[in-house]
Amino acid sequence: MGAAMKGKRKIVVNAPVVIGFTGVCFAATLAGLLTGGYSTRLLFQTMHTSLKNPLTWLRFFTHVFGHSGWSHFMGNAAYLLLLGPMLEEKYGQASIVKVILVTAGITGLVNYIFFPGVALCGASGVVFAFIILTSFTSFRSGEIPLSFILVALIYIGQQLYDAVFVRDSVSQLSHIVGGAVGAVTGYYRNKTS
User: CATH top-level class for 15-191?
Assistant: First the structure.
């Protein structure tokens, strides 16, 4: 009996914040597809609307849940679920919630101020925060990880290049802001630990 019990495996929720965040993104994307994009425009996409409208303030944070379609969602979800659990284990649930909220708030506000004609949705900024934050996992006081420098050069450099030379519907600014949030968080969280 003991050997039979020993061989059993159970599924555990190893990263509730990241899994929950990805689940909300899935639900928001599904709702957007089922409503022909109405729910995305209403709740999960920043746009330049009156600051007197309470939904404007809400969308500064909720735009990270909405995605333009399944491929947009799947690309972000893969990175969130790959990197997020390791980060949540290292930094804790509260820190990951803060990274998500700060990234969402800053990208929503920056998009509102500097790109009034551009609607923004998706978790790409959070993904970039996670990518940069991951490069700090082996950080020691007084050191700058080479992996951080390389990741910053590759990912942030690509976004700067795309912002200048490539015209597409991807918001490189949200990626850059997310990367900056991840870098600042990684540096200060590891400096104090």
Answer: mainly alpha
